[in-house]
UniProtKB/TrEMBL annotation, chains A, B:
InterPro entries: Aminotrans_V_dom, PyrdxlP-dep_Trfase, PyrdxlP-dep_Trfase_major, PyrdxlP-dep_Trfase_small, SP_NH2Trfase/AEP_transaminase
Organism: Demequina mangrovi
GO molecular function: alanine-glyoxylate transaminase activity; L-serine-pyruvate transaminase activity
Protein name from the UniProt record: (S)-ureidoglycine-glyoxylate aminotransferase
Keyword NAD on entry: no
Length: 408, 408
């Protein structure tokens, strides 16, 4: 074969539902040279990462760490470590990523029950309560913000519900953490997992996660095999964790002062995760959430200023992504292709029932910026006009400017 | 909390059994900006990666790709996708990483049988043959090179054996690929998984892997759930793959022209993996293996030149790591600590029965270099002398020079 040249990506402004363009500071941090896994510097960096992500998750949980996979892997780590085969789990489903929780929990051998809401809405608390009463689950597994619909599920009342039924509460915060309020301890969440590639402003490949003492207790009780070396004899529990790679008990040991060998830490991703957290905490967590809300609101106003309809129940919209109903007269994929080819801007398509009906435009992490919002709106106006959609001239940009005008 | 500063690792020369210092070219490639998951550039980069790793694995396998995890995760992906609960698997064990295969296969619900060899040796073919006759396994799962002992298992005759019993052949080549010959197709290996952090010269966090048509057939037959969205109705097979994240059928789809959504590719790690392969293929695969052998031989000669004993059966030693018996009169950990603190050089400790008895010194990837070998030997001589070990003055470096003298 002829060898391909050095990697040389085209300039892209990634304004989809994530992954988004990484903050250049994160990429620079990731070019730092490696140290050994048990180097004192590495030990310190791992401890720093734990401390930084305790701030990001707003938690005191000791077990706050990185799973060495994409966000999807961390979901599996949480579910396979918390769920034994036959355990009942309740999953409120309001979009594609709820289905993913169902799918993963089924592979863990759990007995999965769902409570569904139409796409574009959230699941009412009373529906969850009724399902809890009926199912009596071991775990309530929720998506916080589902980018497939842009909806963000309220967590009010969930802890009380879980306490009533002695149930653990898991949240997939991949799409929301850092850009929307998610106070883990205040909301009584037992386990939460994320990824770097959304509001945290980094690349996919490392997944911050946190586990409450209650979750840790459940996981620790499933230990049957010594970390790294197989124990002789029978397992101690009937249901050891079905995965080695995602065995959180072993991952806790790896991140503990004992630093028991498990996987070989993806050090470059850890450097990146560390810088993502530093960037947010330099701004301040609340200020960073405000930043996402501001630019999300500007994009939303801009989309409406172009005469386009916003998808979903606005009362529950995530700050960092907006669903845009594709005008009937236009081919959504042709518009996306022109945005990418001619303007270097990526906006998102949709899945399942929304495929071909809704674009998803994100404003998150490094790309929650005024210039990114205005450039996207100007390009969209131009492309829509060339595709025969009658759009008000300057309507998108003007509406976004109005939002910024009152804020800056 | 007070915010930690920008990441600023100390200078380290990582001469342990891996991870090793990454090639700076790989780190630079990883600082390239992201593109979208389905960007034409990304599609092309993924196809390039498949082609590059077909060369590295010396295979024509279509399904040659990256698993988004460390090397350990790719082992699990192979085993959980190839093994159904109750399937018999035979694992020849000659060190720690054989135990890891056992441990992972047990978590997959497989019926695991082992054939053991003392540490420091390899498992004789006739022992494997006898065990195959007895066990009749679905899968023979082997570690190619086990860094815990520095031993490399010969693969001669294994394909014939597997054909006789209609058995699949899996190899963990994490520690050997790129630095030792491993012709996947010539040896008839059905599945092999690696990592970037050893002879490939990159950081941990992405795992190249390859699967023969025979392995693909087994995996495809286990499809029961549509990629990404759960199908309604009952599963098609009795034993769907127990993991979503490591479901190779779904990962194949993601890397296929259909690009069905699964995880969000860890693009930065993919850039790194691509550059690792480019570096090796620029040199030439065979030349790169020769390079590892040369520097490995120089290190081995140097260790003996210092009057130290080499661990294990030399006839089966991997090119890229040497076990060094720690002299009785010295505390191995004190020597390692002084090497790191005073010379910035990391050498490895050992696990299990070899802990405290053997150091492991690696010469692989970027650090398979003359200056790295000589600097390590000079530092080791100095530290040993200060710790009261009588070592021949210049004996290590001189012996290494002798090896280079005949080669360069």
């Amino acid at each position: 074969m002829s060898l391909p040249g050095p990697i040389d990506p085209p300039a892209r402004l990634l304004m989809g539902p994530g992954p988004i363009s990484a903050d250049p500071r994160v990429l620079r941090a990731m070019s730092a040279q490696l140290v050994g896994q048990y180097d004192p510097f590495m030990t310190e960096a791992m401890n720093e990462v734990m401390g930084l992500y305790r701030e990001i998750f707003a938690t005191a949980n000791q077990q706050t760490l990185l799973v060495d996979s994409t966000s999807r892997g961390a979901i599996e780590a949480a579910l396979v470590s918390l769920l034994e085969p036959g355990d009942r789990v309740l999953v409120p489903v309001m979009g594609r990523f709820g289905h993913l929780l169902v799918e993963i929990a089924e592979r863990c051998g759990a007995e999965v029950h769902t409570v569904d809401a139409p796409w574009g809405t959230v699941v009412p608390l009373e529906d969850i309560a009724a399902a809890m009463e009926r199912v009596r689950p071991h775990l309530l597994a929720m998506v916080h913000g589902d980018t497939s619909t842009t909806m963000m599920q309220p967590f009010d009342g969930l802890r009380e519900l879980c306490d009533r039924y002695e149930c653990l509460l898991y949240a997939d915060v991949t799409a929301t953490l850092g850009g929307n309020p998610f106070p883990t301890d205040e909301w009584g969440v037992d386990a939460a997992t994320a990824g770097l590639q959304k509001c945290l402003g980094g690349p996919s490949g490392s997944a911050p996660a946190t586990f409450s003492p209650r979750a840790v207790e459940v996981i620790e009780a499933r230990r049957s095999i010594e970390a790294g070396i197989r124990a002789d004899g029978d397992p101690v529990t009937a249901h050891p964790i079905r995965s080695n790679y995602f065995d959180l008990a072993m991952i806790f040991d790896y991140w503990s002062p004992r630093r028991l060998n498990h996987h070989t830490e993806a050090t470059t991703m850890l450097y990146g995760a560390r810088e993502c957290a530093r960037l947010i905490l330099e701004t301040g967590l609340a200020a960073n959430q405000e930043r996402h809300l501001l630019h999300g609101n500007a994009m939303l106003a801009g989309v409406e200023g172009l005469g386009l309809e916003v998808y979903g129940d606005r009362a529950y919209k995530m700050a960092n992504v907006v669903g845009v109903v594709i005008p009937d007269e236009v081919d959504g994929e042709a518009v996306r292709a022109a945005m990418l080819a001619d303007f270097g801007i990526e906006i998102g398509t949709s899945f399942g029932p929304l495929a071909g009906r809704v674009w998803r435009i994100g404003t998150m992490g490094y790309n929650a910026r005024k210039d990114a919002v205005l450039a996207t709106l100007a390009a969209l106006e131009s492309v829509l006009r060339r595709h025969g959609v009658a759009v008000p001239s300057g309507g998108g940009v003007d509406a976004a400017y109005d939002v910024y005008g009152t804020a800056a």
